[in-house]
UniProtKB/TrEMBL annotation:
Residues 102-330 form the Endonuclease/exonuclease/phosphatase domain. Pfam families: Exo_endo_phos. Gene3D superfamilies: Endonuclease/exonuclease/phosphatase (3.60.10.10). InterPro entries: Endo/exonu/phosph_ase_sf (IPR036691), Endo/exonuclease/phosphatase (IPR005135), TDP2-like (IPR051547). SUPFAM superfamilies: DNase I-like. Its cofactor is Mg(2+); Mn(2+). It comes from Aquimarina intermedia. One of its GO terms (biological process) is DNA repair. CDD domains: EEP-2. This is Endonuclease/exonuclease/phosphatase family metal-dependent hydrolase.
């Protein structure tokens, strides 16, 4: 009986190991070519965790079948470290030569009371003020009368939707000398940029909010929606994300300045869109200096990291922090870099 159980467990182990192995190809497969396969990128964190559990199971049984998941995890070690970092990094540097960055999808400051807390706008304002970043990129920004970002003398807001209520915003302590929008059509999502003079240099900062899958973080809500309808909608959003990122990378290639990309990708670090942006000579601040899961989105099934701060390879990432303060459906991320 025990042998039969172990055979069944190993069968499940083999299926999950193959799925994880297949997911390693996703950053290189265009969603336009295989949109259904792109959906697998959102499940990579849970595939990693399940393979780790299978590996522990076989090790406890002193069974060499542990090698299957062990080898698959080893082959994708960079994927594992995209999910969880055992050690962070905190380096002190000359304050005059550093720049701090914060990205946060503020979910319209709880405008429709998703969270039972009337002081969300004030608390988000206080959090940003406490972190005191030099540049703050906000997504789903709503001009609530209770917010206060008066510490930023320079700002750029862009409303890329019909109702003109939600915006992307870049707030800066340094002068903004140029700004613009990529103006996505047929969606409220968008990418904006600002050219910011920092000390003796100029940097181009992109604030990104890629196409949303419109998945409610509640497991009940997911269960109620038909799987075929959900998959079809997600496939279309992956294709739109690729189109949006193609516009971004074309724009980056024309930049006369070093670039930084921040914001809500609505996709994981195992996706084609993330890999395409990273390939523009950028690196992930979380991978450089983060610790733990780096979770940035409230999803009950497994930890999700879909908000990123990507900087030029030549910049040293000194610190990185993700928060667990529940003031939105996202969590803010903040980093400090050496210029």
């Amino acid at each position: 009986m025990r042998k039969l159980v172990n055979r069944f467990v190993f069968l499940l182990n083999s299926i999950v190991a193959f799925a994880l192995l297949l997911s390693y190809l996703l950053p290189y497969i265009s969603p336009k070519t295989f949109p259904l396969l792109s959906v697998l990128s959102l499940t990579v964190p849970i595939l990693i965790l399940i393979n780790a559990l299978f590996m522990v199971y076989w090790i406890l049984l002193v069974n060499r079948r542990f090698l299957l998941s062990f080898i698959v995890l080893l082959l994708g070690i960079s994927h594992v470290f995209s999910l969880y970092k055992f050690r962070g990094k905190s380096v002190k540097a000359d304050k005059e030569n550093t720049l701090s960055l914060l990205s946060y999808n503020v979910h319209s400051f709880n405008r429709f009371e998703w969270i039972d807390n009337e002081r969300i706008p004030q608390e988000i304002s206080a959090l940003v003020k406490e972190q005191n970043p030099d540049i703050f990129c906000g997504q789903e920004f709503y001009n609530n009368p209770d917010i206060d970002f008066s510490q930023y003398p320079y700002s750029y807001q862009d409303f890329n939707n019909d109702n003109g209520e939600l915006a992307l915003v870049i707030l800066s302590k340094y002068p903004i000398i140029n700004k613009g929008s990529l103006q996505f059509e047929g969606t409220a999502n968008n990418i904006i940029f600002s050219d910011i003079v920092v000390q003796m240099d100029t940097l181009r900062v992109y604030n990104v909010h890629l196409q949303s899958h419109r998945i409610t973080p509640s497991t009940d809500a997911i269960a109620k929606e038909g799987s075929q309808k959900l998959l079809s909608r997600m496939q279309m959003s992956f294709i739109k994300q690729q189109q949006q990122v193609d516009l971004l990378t074309d724009h980056i290639k024309t930049s006369p300045y070093k670039v930084m990309v921040m914001g809500d990708f609505n996709n994981s670090a195992y996706s084609y869109v993330y890999n395409t942006v990273l390939a523009q000579g950028l690196k992930d601040a979380f991978k450089e200096a983060g610790k733990g899961f780096g979770k940035t989105y409230e999803f009950k099934l497994f930890p999700v990291r879909i908000d990123f701060i990507l900087v030029e390879e030549e910049f040293e990432v000194l610190t990185f922090k993700s928060f667990d303060t529940k003031l939105s459906d996202h969590y803010p991320v903040v980093t400090k870099i050496q210029l």
